[in-house]
Amino acid sequence: MDNKLMLMIPGPTPVPEKVLLALAKHPIGHRSADFSAIMAEVTENLKWLHQTQNDVLILTASGTGAMEAGIINFLSPGDRVLVGSNGKFGDRWAKLSKAFGLNVETVTAESGKALNPEEFKEKLVADTEKTIKAVIITHSETSTGVLNDLKTINRYVKDHGEALIIVDAVTSLGAVNIPIDDWGLDVVGSGSQKGYMIPPGLGFVSVSAKAWEAYKTAKLPRFYLDLGPCRKSAAKNTTPFTPAISMVIALQVALQMMRAEGLESIFARHQRLMGATRAAMKALSLPLFAPDEAASPAITAVAPVSVESEKIRSVMKKRFDIILAGGQDELSGKIFRMGHLGFVCDRDILAAIASLEATLTELGYESFTPGAGVAAAAQVLTQS
C-alpha cells in the first residue's frame, strides 16, 4: 500500500501534517515584511528551544554545515583543540578540524561506550599555558546511540577558563534537556531533520558572548558560513543570502507545536520512548549496543547475535514499510538502530516493536516469547 512508510531512523524523522501543509504553500519574498515577521517569531522560539538568550542563527545547510560553521568561525590555523571521538560523528569533527589546519588531539572511547570526562579533565588541567582553544563534543552520538556526559565535560572546560566548548547537538537538541545559558555552552550546532520535526535543509548555531569575542581574532577562511553577517542580518529579521524560505515557514509551524507541548513534556516523552524501546529489546533478548547509563533518548542501537541485523531491516521494510537504520562504517551489518526522536509517539513505538516481533518470527529467531517485547514496552509507556 502506498504512503504507509514509517520512518524509525535518527533522521530524517517523521514530519507532522501541519508542517507538510506549510511546506506546500507558495514561497514568499525573503526581503518582504511578511517573511521578516516569520523570522522574528522563529528566532524567538529557537531561543526558547535552546534555553538561551544568545544568538541562534539559521543556515541553509545540514547539521554538518552547522558544525563546520561552529568550528571555523572561532578558531585559527594551528589552534590546539580536543575532539571527543567515540563514533562516526566524533570522528567527522576530528577530520573536519584537521582539514582546516587545526592541531587536533582526540579523546577516544570504544564504539558503544561513552567518553570519559576525566580524560578531558586531565588534559585541561595539564594545560597550564592555556594552549587548548576549544573542546569539541558530540552530545548524542547518532551512530551508536550513546549520550555523552556533556554537563561534566563542560564543567571541566569552564574550570580551564580559556577554551571554548563546541557541541554537536544534532540528535539531542529537542530531545534532551540542554540548558545552554545555565551551563554556559559556547557554540551549539544542530540540524532540522531531527528533533525539529521538519525535513533536512536547515542548520542552527547558538553562539555565546565568549565565542563572539573569539570570532574577532579567528582567522580560518569563511564566506557562506561566516556567522558575522548572519548575526547582523538576524538582528534585522533577515538573512545575508537567499534562505530556504519554505523550510523556514515549516519551522515556524514546528516550533509552534513544540511550544504547545512544552519543553518538560518533550524531554519526558523522549525519555519514555527510549525506556520503552530498550525494555522491549531486552525482553526480546536482543543485546543493546549502548549501556543504560549512557543511552541516548534519540536513538537505540541493537546488536543482534543469532539473527542478522540487515535481514531484520529488510523484512521490516518489505513487510511493514518500517525503516530502521543500519550500522555505519565498521558497524555496518553489525547493528540496527531504531530512532525515537521528533514527531514520534507511544503508538509508533508499539507498532514498531510488534512489527519487529513478527519479523523475528519470520526469520526463525526463537530466543523470545511472542508478545514479550510489546508487553515490556507497554508497561513502560503506561507507567511513565
UniProtKB/TrEMBL annotation:
<dbReference type="InterPro" id="IPR020578">
    <property type="entry name" value="Aminotrans_V_PyrdxlP_BS"/>
</dbReference>
<protein>
    <submittedName>
        <fullName>Alanine--glyoxylate aminotransferase family protein</fullName>
    </submittedName>
</protein>
<feature type="modified residue" description="N6-(pyridoxal phosphate)lysine">
    <location>
        <position position="194"/>
    </location>
</feature>
<feature type="domain" description="Aminotransferase class V">
    <location>
        <begin position="27"/>
        <end position="328"/>
    </location>
</feature>
<keyword id="KW-0663">Pyridoxal phosphate</keyword>
<dbReference type="InterPro" id="IPR015422">
    <property type="entry name" value="PyrdxlP-dep_Trfase_small"/>
</dbReference>
<dbReference type="InterPro" id="IPR015424">
    <property type="entry name" value="PyrdxlP-dep_Trfase"/>
</dbReference>
<comment type="similarity">
    <text>Belongs to the class-V pyridoxal-phosphate-dependent aminotransferase family.</text>
</comment>
<dbReference type="InterPro" id="IPR024169">
    <property type="entry name" value="SP_NH2Trfase/AEP_transaminase"/>
</dbReference>
<dbReference type="GO" id="GO:0019265">
    <property type="term" value="P:glycine biosynthetic process, by transamination of glyoxylate"/>
</dbReference>
<dbReference type="InterPro" id="IPR000192">
    <property type="entry name" value="Aminotrans_V_dom"/>
</dbReference>
<feature type="binding site">
    <location>
        <position position="337"/>
    </location>
    <ligand>
        <name>substrate</name>
    </ligand>
</feature>
<dbReference type="GO" id="GO:0004760">
    <property type="term" value="F:L-serine-pyruvate transaminase activity"/>
</dbReference>
<dbReference type="Pfam" id="PF00266">
    <property type="entry name" value="Aminotran_5"/>
</dbReference>
<keyword id="KW-0032">Aminotransferase</keyword>
<dbReference type="GO" id="GO:0008453">
    <property type="term" value="F:alanine-glyoxylate transaminase activity"/>
</dbReference>
<keyword id="KW-0808">Transferase</keyword>
<dbReference type="InterPro" id="IPR015421">
    <property type="entry name" value="PyrdxlP-dep_Trfase_major"/>
</dbReference>
